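Per reviewer request, we include the raw input and output of the structure prediction for the construct analysed in the revised manuscript.
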Amino acid sequence: MRCKGVVAEEAVPLLAELKANKADAIKILQGRQTVPVHDPGVEIAPADSLLWVRLLTAAKKVDLDFAARLLFLRGAGCSLVPNEKTGFRLEPVIDETGCNGWIDQELYDIEKQCLWPYRHKLTELLKILAEGR
């Protein structure tokens, strides 16, 4: 029997693991423990993965929505590239198939507008990241 992609026999160990970690899950939901940040784009662009973890961690402390928007762009294919003005800048990974990055620059330009409300904070975090703080 299958339950949304999980074979019933596989569900038993999963439930046991969830029960074993119930206390941690409750702490996370109550805000008493932080969820570790992972890099959703590590397979697309692994070279800057540690920088992304630091950026996403810092963004999460500012605002969860801000961090979610960065997670989206990174997961779809985005790299951190050195930049004189801001320390780093976001640059799309372009892959015409769309499997390992953005289909084209135009689509990325449309989607990156989600960061507009956070542009000043992003610039600040990119400078801090470049300074190694």
